[in-house]
Specification:
three-stranded antiparallel sheet, 5 helices, two-stranded antiparallel sheet
Length: about 100
């Protein structure tokens, strides 16, 4: 599922698409006039509930193939998350993307 009004911005401009079609592409999530961030506490809780194990930022970064700084940027709205990585986080923690993406 995707937030209403979700647009995907690529290097050539803004296009509206279904996130399922973007699984293998590195598009970023951008919603006009709004800032979104990942809620790491919800991701951590989902992962604990699904696996019974704790999760740190560095562990999540390693699992999805990004740097710890990238996770920090996504948490602090410094940069928008990449759609395939959101899908990977969703699978790891057993949550729908809408459950760990929050509006700033």
């Amino acid at each position: 599922m995707k937030p209403e009004g979700l647009t995907i911005k690529d290097k050539n401009g803004v296009i509206k698409v279904d996130s399922e079609k973007l699984k293998d592409k590195n598009y970023t999530m951008e919603i006009p006039n709004e800032k979104y961030y990942i809620d790491f506490a919800k991701i951590k809780a989902g992962f604990l509930n699904k696996t019974g194990e704790t999760l740190e930022q560095k562990d999540l970064a390693e699992m999805i193939g990004v740097s710890k700084q990238t996770i920090s940027n996504w948490k602090n709205v410094a940069s928008p998350p990449i759609i395939p990585k959101l899908n990977a986080i969703s699978e790891l923690c057993g949550l729908n993307i809408n459950q760990f993406i929050s509006k700033k």
